[in-house]
Design a protein that fits this description.
1 helix, 43% strand, elongated
Length: 133
């Protein structure tokens, strides 16, 4: 009777070059993964901690064919001033109004309605973003 071998004969084929390449690829992938996670963590920390002003659009009302009113709630550090950019679009998606509104109130929470004059009838309004100054 003959025995069945499950392994290759020792020393006959040597170490595979693929094993060394796989090891280098795994190490490179792990290092790049750790660097990527560190970079994402740093960006997230910078965005959350250094953000001195943020806003949320509560609602908007199309008052007429030439005016839209936007209700904003702005949260910021006390004494920080900033600018928020608002825009409005028509039914076909064209921008019909854009306005930068100054936030000079020293309070940490500002709740205000801003009016935008439009060049055509608007169907939507949007808060583009806010920046501290």
């Amino acid at each position: 009777m003959s025995a069945v071998r499950e392994q290759l004969p020792e020393g006959r084929y040597g170490r595979s070059a693929d094993e060394a390449a796989d090891r280098k690829l795994k190490i490179t992938g792990a290092v790049l993964g750790v660097l990527f996670l560190g970079l994402m963590g740093w960006f997230g920390w910078y965005y959350v901690v250094d953000s001195k002003i943020s806003a949320e659009m509560i609602k908007f009302d199309v008052v007429s064919s030439t005016e839209v009113q936007v209700h904003l709630e702005i949260r910021k550090d006390e004494g920080v001033k900033g600018v928020c950019t608002l825009r409005s679009r028509s039914e076909d998606g064209a921008e019909v109004a854009r306005k930068d509104v100054r936030v000079d109130d020293p309070a940490s929470r500002v709740d205000r309605v801003y009016s935008l004059r439009t060049t055509a009838r608007a169907t939507s309004a949007q808060l583009v973003g806010c920046t501290a100054q």
